[in-house]
Amino acid sequence: MNKKDAVKKIWRESFDDSEQYVDMFFSRIYRDDDAMLLVDNGIPSSSLLLQRYAMNFHGVTVSIGYVCGAATIKDARCHGLMHRLMSDALRESYRRGDVLCSLIPANEWLFHYYGHQGFSPVFYVDVERYTSMHTFRHSGKYFRFEDVDSDDAYDFFNTMMRQRPCCVQHSREQYDWILMDNSIDSGTVLGIVDGMDNIAALAFVVSHDGIALVKDVLAVDNDARDAILEEIHNLYADMPVTVLGYYTPGREELVARGMARIVNAFRCLEIIASVYPRLKLVMRLCDSIVPENSHVYRIHDGLCEIDDDYEGQCDFDIDIEVLTSIIFGNDVTRRLLDFPATRPFISLMLD
Predict the structure, then answer these.
(1) How far apart are CA 6 and CA 46, in angstroms?
(2) Is residue 136 in a domain?
(3) What is the Cα–Cα distance from 328 to 260, expressed in whole angstroms?
(4) What is the β-pairing status of strands 143-144 and 60-72?
(5) Which of 333, 290, 281, 265 is nearest to 122 (CA)?
(6) Looking at the domain assignment, is residue 112 inside a domain?
(7) Strands across the sheet containing 296-300
(8) Beta-carbon neighbour count of residue 32 at 10 Å?
(9) Which segments of 58-93 are extended strands (E)?
(10) Domain that holds residue 71
């Protein structure tokens, strides 16, 4: 059995995905280079995919890893195999040049599980809930845009995503994956244009448990956003609408969506130091899984330096999970620690 077939077999045993979805995923999305497989006693037992994405981070585009399909066959569970495989994936993510590794836990208890490997719940969404009687009011005139798989649609999508600070980005190919995933879920990708025929908004919607679930909505302004939500309301007339919305900075009533774990602390701190030249601190960092991160870092005058001979007092003496929480913290973190924390965002990850 080759690697792809082994991963596919574990996937089918572990997840309740339709055959249509599995066939689409392994024919169009799966890459052998992304797949990691653990063979125990001659049996393929655990697998995951470490996919490649990009994220804008303090004005710099960085490479990140995204873990999906992490699973272990039933007969091999509770023996630490996934912990071993995830540790291998984090070291591989470091080797290939990623700044961080991300994932979206399938269940609430997995937030605790992944926390043991340095992941922190830093990706949040603003969940908006509207009844089926809600009215979305807008003043502009808009028209449906059907060519959501066109280059123009992707260019709009890409432009809007890049305007979000610290947001996981999607390539043209990954945008096509989103469209395929939405189609298999019997969902709808809606687009509208304004009176000048310029794309004004895109929304990705599926019917889920009796609600119209908007997995993301991108709009040029609030009027266009309300207009496309009204289109969704009309299309799913008898359903309440729930939007997994991009958060408003400073708002703290958010819901945890995903987790991240820094895998290259030096590169991460180097970027922050260059953008905030007045930042000055000394940090001792411990990372038991990616030992290359375990150093004393001195940040000053726009530079980040490793100084393991430093014997003075450190401003921070922390592990990798705490560092991740600080770097991707909220406005409270920023004020209390006097550190340029920024809250990241993730959406449309085929989860």
Answers:
(1) 9
(2) yes
(3) 9
(4) unpaired
(5) 333
(6) no
(7) 303-306, 296-300, 281-286, 316-319
(8) 10
(9) 60-72
(10) 3-98
Going by C-alpha positions, the residue among 246, 106, 228 that lies closest to residue 168 is 246
C-alpha span between 102 and 262 (Å, rounded): 9
- pLDDT tier, 249 (very low <50, low <70, confident <90, very high otherwise): low
Burial class of residue 116, CB neighbours in 10 A (0-12, 13-18, 19+): exposed
Q: Which residues pair with 120 in a beta bridge?
A: 260
153 plus 230 within the same structural domain: yes
List, for residues 43-100, the tens digit of each pLDDT value.
999 999 999 999 999 999 999 999 999 999 999 899 999 999 999 999 999 999 999 9
CA distance to 10, 145, 341, 351, per residue, from 107 (Å): 18, 36, 27, 11
CATH of the domain at 228: 3.40.630.30
Lowest model confidence (mean pLDDT) among 227-236, 295-304, 329-338:
329-338
- Domain membership of residue 25 (yes or no) is yes
Query: Is 279 inside a domain boundary?
Result: no
Q: In this prediction, what percent of the chain has a pLDDT beyond 90?
A: 93
In this structure, which amino acid lies at residue 125? V
Tell me the CA distances in angstroms from 131 to 240, 271, 319, one per residue in order: 4, 44, 44
Looking up tokens 């502009």 gives 140
- Band (pLDDT 50/70/90 cuts) for residue 331 is confident
Number of folded domains in the chain?
Answer: 2
